[in-house]
Amino acid sequence: MTTGREKLDRQLVWNRLLAIVEEQAQALMRTAFSTVVREAGDLSAGVFSTAGGMLAQAVTGTPGHVNAMAASVGKFLRVHPLAGLKPGDVLLTNDPWDGTGHLNDFTVVTPVFRDGRCVALFAATSHIADVGGRGFGPDANDLFEEGIRIPIGYLYRQGERDETLLRLIRANVRDPVTAEGDLHSLTACNELGGRALLEMMDDFALADLAEAGGFIVETSRAAMAREIAALPDGAYHHEMTIDGYRSPVRLAVEISIDGERLHVDFSGSSPRSDAGINVPLPYTQAYASFGVRCVVGNEVPNNAGSLGAVTVSAPEGCILNALPPAAVSARHSVGQMLPDVVLGALAQVVPGLVPAEGASCIWNPVFLSAPGGGGNAGLVDFVTNPIFNGGTGARPGKDGLSTTAFPSGVRTTSTEINEATTPLVIWRKEYRTDSGGPGRHRGGLGQVIEVGHREGAAFVVSRMFDRIGHPARGRFGGGDGAPGAVYVKGGATLAGKGRDVVPPGGVLVLETPGGGGMGDPTERAEAAVALDLGAGLISGGAARSIYGLKADGLEPEDGPD
Amino acid sequence: MPYDLAVDIGGTFTDVVLQDGETRTTIKVLTTSEDPADGVMQGIEEVLRRSGRHPGEARVMIHGTTLATNALIERRGAVTALLTTEGHRDALEMALENRFEQYDLNIDRPVPLVPRMLRLPVVERLDARGEVLVDLEPGSVRRWYGILGEQAVTSVAVGFLHAYANPAHERAVAALLAEEMPALTVSLSSEVCPEIREYERLSTTCANAYVKPLMSRYLQSLAEQFQARGFDCPILLMTSGGGITTLETAREFPIRLVESGPAGGAILAARLAQAGGYGKVLAFDMGGTTAKLTVIDEGQPLLSRSFEVDRSYRFRKGSGLPVRIPVIEMVEIGAGGGSIASVDALGRLQVGPESAGSEPGPVSYGRGGQAPTVTDADLMLGRIDPAGFAGGRLVLDQPAADRALERAVGAPMGLDTNLAAHAVSEVVNENMAAAARAHLGEWGRGVEDRDLIAFGGAAPLHACLLAKKLKLNRIVVPADAGVGSAVGFLLAPVGYEVVRSHYMTLDRLDYQAIDSLMQEMEAEAMAVVGAVADRNALEVNRRAFMRYLGQGFEIAVPLDGVLDGPTLRSRFEEHYAGLYGRTIGNLDVEILSWTLSLTESASRRTLAGETVRALRIVKPVSERPVFDVISAAEVSAGCFDRPTLSAGDCIAGPALIGEAQTTVVVGSGYTACVGDRGSLVICADDSAHAHRPGDRT
CB contact, 8 Å: A1 with chain B? Predict the structure, then answer.
């Protein structure tokens, strides 16, 4: 029988663990050198039991790492069993199948010792800007073209850094300074977590985390079991087709709910691609499980108990369980679509909680100077990788969010900063009228971006965009969001994925996709239609023909559009 | 001898302080929301009456107010339009295109102060160097006059891309409007916030425009009533950055007045730290809804330029409207006396951020509150005297608090009521400790060897427990902690900071550009402070906001002395290492923005040094049972009345020291000692600073 005091302490210990991993993640984000980590939070951090089960994970971080990193520590322990680990040891890998799905993500695991005994392990993952090979993008044909691969091994052995490994890494990446810096910040954030953990164990006089960890995992498992048990049993199917690299990709899912168990299976999805858009299973599990958790048990913290309640499988060799040496660099362009697929199946289970499909995959073009200054000698070379977003799907009872990243957790960069640090001019960046899928609740809007070169020089754009051929679909009678588009103003239309030169004086136009609508658009409140019309989010034509707004409510606006 | 007045308008109370040499008269009156100037004048009448002084003898009135903040939160500002660069009118709403919470599909992004139909595109374009790519077309401004009229717009923000680099187009529009639409109030982004990053600059400019008519009216009304009463001294306004400024500047840039109350509290803590020789301090202000923590090292609070108003989602970063103004950096979390305790689906006790506020307030107020709060828990634990709360004006209903805690916390968690109350207190203290650790970490400051300065209604109740969790040394509870912000106003220097963005990399420093930038900024700051401050006693502080090439965040680097590349680089690296623990090899460094501030040298407004000498142990007036956190049992605590204590008095914990607005809780194993300026200094008996009556500490 637990006393009241013990009950309280258990909870305080749980709160402290959550605070500690949050501090660990914040430290990583602040000290990382890679821009996507600092700016966009492309990282994860957590504390694990000595059996490799995750006890707490920072809220800061990106869903792509959820679950993937959680499973990773167990794999580390299989290679380096606990008994052999010593104080001062630090382990490392960037193996896509042992870590979080592509070579850019490095996972560092650090055991923590108290009185000579290992009491926990801290793990952290972050995205390192360059790992050699062809560079970040979908263009490789196999993993060996994508860069350096480091199997699970020691980064530090009892406090001694493995200099051979470091030299090997430095020699194989384009930006050795930031790569080494990022490895250092991963190591340091784990150290910080370890110190805070030991202090907490002192405060609560804990010799180990066995009991506290068991309580956390069991409480979370039970909470998830209750949530899942409340859902009707059955098998629910759904599928979605996306643009893919050169040919469309089919993503099929079966979600089976059986009592307290929820299983997601992707049988029937397209086979492995010969481009770098394949997804290793841990990354599939991460985004599939994120999709489920958005509507089932979203208040239960991530740990071995809550994550274990949702299992995910995909047949070997399919695009969602690609095996080595498949190319996986741009696995996000398929992986970020998985929440839409999973939510589509769950719409049959909990229709009142599930949004329509959204743009989902971020639009992050790489802009760089054309070879030889693009016909304008004397210009400084530049490269920049801004992030733009489309709209999210309409939500039950609410419109979708315009130009907002989902499921990714990234942020965009300022137009003024982009223009101050490159010779580009972003002539236009505003909402794209009529791009939100019509519905009783409207999908979020995409945006129109027009980019030119200040000196009229040519420049290069490299793309990994989706939802150009396959827009976000509406739900329950809602219309589709507008598909995306890429073209040179008054010139050629470009494919969603690839690399092209924008000719001298040319203006590149990107139209990001809108989110799908929800429910019959003619049921949309007249006031909401009028408001959208007044704001120019929808056109007069759409208001009349799609939303059925009567002509007398349609005075031509002398407003900003 | 002349005296000084300070007035702080809060949401519920207006605090007035009259400082006459060493004598301080303080009063709290209810805030009069219809015309807040009425409440101010009532309070002033009352302190004049009590002190027997006359209006003509006043030297200065220093004023801080939450009116601008409230107008933003409650969306009660002017109908505002934004004139902005064609093609970019959605920058204000697109913001950073992110979600501030990953797992909640139903979050709403902050609603901009200017709706899309009033974000009006203007034909013009500058590049990042401030060069004109497209000339301003006056017709593209005039075409909106009709809409401005139809929509009853009274305030206009003008924000063009890269206007920080060249204000010409914005000024031309201002001239046009002054000529052709003279009734409109105008705010230019190149004046309000000439800093790179369009979303933050436009958000700040729109917020300024949104509150400008209202604040202008209020300040006008106050100045008139003040003069009519016979005062001829200047009115100066407290700003969020910790400096005070003129009425004219406040009317032009009212956005700088947000958070002036908390800034006053931080200034008081900073002056106390200087006077008491406390090198590393955490200032802790806990009120009804939130707790605020400020880091003060060597007497200087951390300063920053970013702030969010109206964090509407559990005080979460990113859920508010960004405002780029000079601010005293503080972390604010939803932990106050009114924070509500509940048990979630996992059986975990949660405290805050939801708050019962002051209406209906905690259950024990007996005003209809049903959910148990931190104050109810403090009452249950014996820390608050039910009969003596708020100077005896409110008798607290302890049985009601007891029942609510049992129902909402005790029963679901299987804890008896005392332990349930203790759990509420522990969780809120843990939340504050976690916020403090994270904040200190974020700024590269350690927790070690730090003292705590506690003020605000609920802080003295929790200070000892928070200090124990963070292993802090001493806890200082100043006299007049209940009107701390207003007292802080009296100690604030006249000061003003201006900013400019001008991009350059360290390997291509343009010294001429820096020089003219600095001269221009100094002239602008002098125009504000020169009128009221002694020009010979001004300190100049220049800072550059720098980062490694391509990084996302800049850090502030002081620029005193030589300005050459190598010096700047080593300064930058020193600060970078201070924050992040290391530097990055030979990566180039870029500068985005520059600030210059003029501040009266501090010597004119300091507190006299305070000596704390433990002389004697004093006996309690009475004893009361309190719940002791160490033994988890009821123990008997001595009760004391703070106004009756004198310098040198020592009180051994467990003890409760009551005063008009709050109770200071001294835990067991701690001793409090009264300093010769009225502060209570509390130390652990087993610490290096322990009070040993008879010894000098």
Answer: no
How high is the pLDDT of residue A410? 81
pLDDT in tens, B107-131: 999 999 999 999 999 999 999 999 9
Answer whether the bond into residue A280 is a cis peptide, omega within 30°. no
Which of A435, A444, A407, A428 minimizes the C-alpha distance to B91?
A428
The answer to whether residues B292 and B285 touch, using CB atoms and an 8 Å cutoff, is yes
A385 touches chain B (CB under 8 A): no
Residues of A in contact with B590 (CB under 8 A): 421
> Is A184 in Cβ contact with B427 (below 8 Å)?
no
CB B90 to CB A447 under 8 A?
yes
Name the A residues in 498-557 with CB < 8 Å from any B CB: 534-537
pLDDT for res B537: 85
Rounded (5°) CA angle A110-A113-A117: 125
- A561–B contact, CB cutoff 8 A: no
What are the residue ranges of helices labelled H in A102-175?
Answer: 163-172
Rounded distance between C-alpha atoms, residue A73 and residue A467, angstroms: 35
Task: Give the global pTM.
Answer: 0.93
Do the beta carbons of residue B532 and residue B494 sit within 8 Å? yes
In this structure, how many other beta carbons lie within 10 angstroms of the beta carbon of residue B480?
18
List of chain B residues whose C-beta atoms are within 8 Å of the C-beta of residue A402: 93-94
Express each pLDDT in A277-298 by its tens digit.
Answer: 999 999 999 999 999 999 999 8
* B623 and chain A in contact, CB less than 8 A: no
| Positions of chain A with pLDDT under 70 | 1, 39, 373-379, 551-561
Tell me which residue in A23, A38, A405 faces B441 most closely, judged by beta carbons.
A23
Strands (E), B160-226: 185-188
Q: How many CB pairs under 8 A join A and B?
A: 197
Backbone angles phi, psi at A258, to 5 degrees: -140, 100
CB atoms within 10 A of CB A469: 14
Distance CA A225, CA A260 (A): 5
pLDDT at A106: 96
Q: Do the interacting molecules here have an ipTM over 0.95?
A: no
Give whole-number Cα distances, B255 to A301, A527, B240, B512, B696, in Å. Answer: 39, 33, 9, 32, 47
Residue B216 backbone dihedrals phi, psi, to 5 degrees: -65, -45
The reply to whether residue B105 touches residue A395, judged by beta carbons under 8 angstroms, is yes
CB environment A45-57: b (16+ within 10 A), e (fewer):
bbbbbbebbbbbb
CA–CA dist A42, B98 (Å, integer): 13
User: Each residue of B283-339: pLDDT tens digit?
Assistant: 999 988 889 999 999 999 999 988 998 888 878 888 899 999 999 999 999 999 999
Residue A407: cis peptide before it, omega within 30 degrees of 0: yes
Residue ranges in A41-175 assigned as alpha helix (H) = 68-79, 163-172
- Chain B nearest-CA distance from A5, in A, is 8
Q: Identify the pLDDT of residue A556.
A: 47
The pLDDT of residue B152 is above 90 = yes
Transcribe A54-76 into DSSP letters: EEEE-SSS-GGGTTHHHHHHHHH
Per-residue b or e along B378-398, where b marks 16 or more CB atoms closer than 10 Å to that residue's CB = bbbbbbbbeebbeeeebebbb
What is the model's pLDDT at position A553? 52
Mean pLDDT of B373-384: 94
Average pLDDT of chain A, as a whole number = 93
Q: Note the pLDDT of residue B535.
A: 82
Strand runs (DSSP E) across A49-180, as ranges?
Answer: 54-57, 90-93, 105-114, 117-127, 153-157, 160-161
Mean per-residue pLDDT over chain B, rounded: 91
Chain A residue closest in CA terms to B578: A31
Do B438 and A26 count as a contact with CB atoms less than 8 A apart? Answer: yes
Q: Tell whether A118 is within 8 A of chain B (Cβ).
A: no
